[in-house]
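Attaching the record inline, Q. Sequence:
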Amino acid sequence: MTGAARLTRKGRATKERIVSAAADLIYEHGVAGTSIEDVRAAAGVSGSQMTHYFQDKRSLVADVVDHQAKVVMELQRSPVGALDSFAALRAWAAVHVQHQLDNHCEGGCRLGSLAGEVVETDLLARARLALGFEQWEQLLREGLQAMYDRGDLRSAADPEKLAMALLAALQGGTLLTQTKREVAPLVAALDSMLTYVESFATDPAAVGRGGRDG
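Structure, as predicted:
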């Protein structure tokens, strides 16, 4: 049995509260700028509880990565549904642009900002991040594959490469948006990439019907 499986319901709730508090602090202040004591105080737990659930800060950060991956995946799914149409992909892009606007272009991507801090120094966190990004890419890939199988995309389209490129455009655009404090880089990156995806449409008129953002 894993440690998580051995926890009581109350224990799981306490651990989740600690991870959630740590995720918010790390998103705002970074890994280096967040101490175990900061997390303990924010979660309202004792020092003994912290050591009971987490061997060290490294194990806490690994769980924060998993938490942020879940938050990110919820953002992908809830407002749009399946990403299996040109309209859905445009709506997906609009959700991310609006998310940055709502956050005043601060903080960046919850996974991407973590990656910038820990991928070269924490192998456990890097492995968790790689899994999180793979799940994200898979969601895009599944939608594009459905479009390909349905005949919405020409045979020259490669759903795997397109999904990877879409995620790369989102990450790069978000980083520049965070740096410049304006959404223009993210809008440009996503619009350019989606226009490329739409260039593979078997019926160009379907793209126009499917929700281009003017």
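The domain at 3-54 is CATH 1.10.10.60 (Arc Repressor Mutant, subunit A). Residues 115 and 130 are 9 Å apart (CA to CA).

More tomorrow.
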